[in-house]
Amino acid sequence: MAAALALGAAGCARVPEAEPVRGDVAFYLVDEGAVEGARTVPVLRPYPGQPPRLALQSVPAVARGQVVQVALRDEDNGGASLELKLSADGAKRLGQATRDNVGKRMAVVVGGVAVNVATIQSEISSDRLQVSGLSRIEAQDLHRELVKGR
């Protein structure tokens, strides 16, 4: 059974052991009305009933370079999460995108793969986010990709 992925404001004051992001990461709104042949990306771990690929809007809500730090964090359930810190411009763009799109889905895309797909519940006004529900190995692989880049 696939674990649920979550995207939300991180509850900590500082990202633990944060390292600079050099890899490819961006946040995209899911294109719910995409036509056949639209650009899609694979989903790392689809929920039951979720297609293995998602169509995304062409312009990212938060672009590459606006996620500036990442930290790997262990969770009590044996899994792991990534804590992300956004630049001031990235936080502003994410706040606007989440405020304007409550009820719609947003994907965190790392290296061309949607690692997190969540429904926007409310505006995210923080510059710190947590991507949770990952296995330890998935989180380590994504962390390494973000820190080292390709």
List keywords for this structure.
single chain; 150 residues; alpha+beta; 5-stranded antiparallel β-sheet; 3-stranded antiparallel β-sheet; 2 helices; 17% helix; 35% strand; globular; disordered N terminus
List the helices and strands and how they pair.
Blueprint: E1 6-9, E2 19-20, E3 25-29, E4 40-42, E5 53-55, E6 67-74, E7 80-86, H1 88-100, E8 105-110, E9 113-119, E10 128-134, H2 136-148
Antiparallel strand pairs: 1-10, 2-6, 3-8, 4-5, 6-7, 7-10, 8-9
Write up what this structure looks like.
- The chain is α+β, with helices and mostly antiparallel strands.
- Helix content is 17%, strand content 35%.
- The chain has 2 helices and 10 strands.
- The chain has helices at 88-100, 136-148; strands at residues 6-9, 19-20, 25-29, 40-42, 53-55, 67-74, 80-86, 105-110, 113-119, 128-134.
- It has a 5-stranded antiparallel beta sheet with strand order 1-10-7-6-2.
- The longest helix is centred in the middle third of the chain and has 13 residues, at 88-100.
Number of strands: 10
Largest sheet: 5 strands, antiparallel
Classify the helix fraction into a percent range: 10-25%
Strands of the widest sheet, in order across it, are: 1-10-7-6-2
Strand content: 25-35%
- Quickly give the structural class: alpha+beta
SSE pattern? EEEEEEEHEEEH
Helix run count: 2
